[in-house]
Amino acid sequence: MSAFGPLQFRVNLNGVSGDWQPLATLVRLPVLTALTCPATPELACKLSGSGLFLVDSISGDPQFTHPLQVPDGFPGHALPVPQPINGQLYVKLRDNPSVVNRIAMTVVSLPPSPDEVARAAARLPAAAPVDQPPGGAAGTASPSDNSSPSSPAAQMPTDPGAAASTQPSEPAATVPNPSAATSALTIQPVVPHSN
């Protein structure tokens, strides 16, 4: 058996009862055990635990711009969640969804799969600029002898694998360090400061 919800109190002095006053809100907490994230930052992480039905919603930012709503009575033991920013996610609990709670967990980074490595190599040439920069600076790939310089086919590589070796790599596509971790699990309310 568990108790949850708002707690109130009132003073009873010489048989005269005062008004009920709010004291606190009791909430039931889920048990969050692991946060596993793929090497690709565009993909969702997996939050594992028990009692996940106690979570109302999860977001990567405290403003809840793109929250993940957890269905009422969710029976599962894992949820797809956004990649944490600085190792932190934000949670609203079902028993008191008006309060935003910060979760700091150790992030377990998965090594990239062979498919992810291949997709990352194919994305690099597509993200790299093909046209010459203003002023015709050197250092861009030159067209083949058979193509005219003004044709689009001459400017775009036909083989992504070959183009990957001629284009400079971009640091934005690097794979995060799998051993990087954040602090241990804590759930803290994010309380706005009032004057």
Taking the sheet with the most strands, its summary is: 5 strands, antiparallel
**Cross-sheet strand order for the largest sheet:** 8-7-10-11-13
Q: Average pLDDT value?
A: 72
Number of helices: 3
Percent helix range: 10-25%
Binned strand content: 25-35%
Structural class: alpha+beta
What are the secondary-structure elements, in order, as H or E?
A: EEEEEEEEEEEEHHHE
Beginning-to-end CA distance, first to last residue: 39 Å
Number of strands: 13
Shape type:
elongated
What's the helix and strand layout?
Elements: E1 5-9, E2 12-13, E3 16-17, E4 21-26, E5 31-37, E6 45-50, E7 55-59, E8 68-69, E9 78-81, E10 88-93, E11 96-104, E12 107-109, H1 114-127, H2 152-155, H3 160-166, E13 186-190
Parallel strand pairs: 5-12
Antiparallel strand pairs: 1-4, 2-3, 5-6, 6-9, 7-8, 7-10, 10-11, 11-13
Describe the structure.
There is one protein chain. The model is unreliable at 135-185 (pLDDT under 50). The strands form four sheets. This protein has a five-stranded antiparallel beta sheet, with no helix packed on it. Strands 9-6-5-12 form a four-stranded mixed beta sheet, with no helix packed on it. The chain has a two-stranded antiparallel sheet with strand order 1-4. The protein has a domain at 29-111 and 177-190. It is built from three helices and 13 strands. Strand 10 (88-93) and strand 11 form a beta hairpin. It starts with a strand and ends in a 5-residue tail after the last strand. By secondary structure, it is an alpha+beta fold. The longest helix is centred in the middle third of the chain and has 14 residues, at 114-127. Helix 1 packs across helix 3 (160-166).
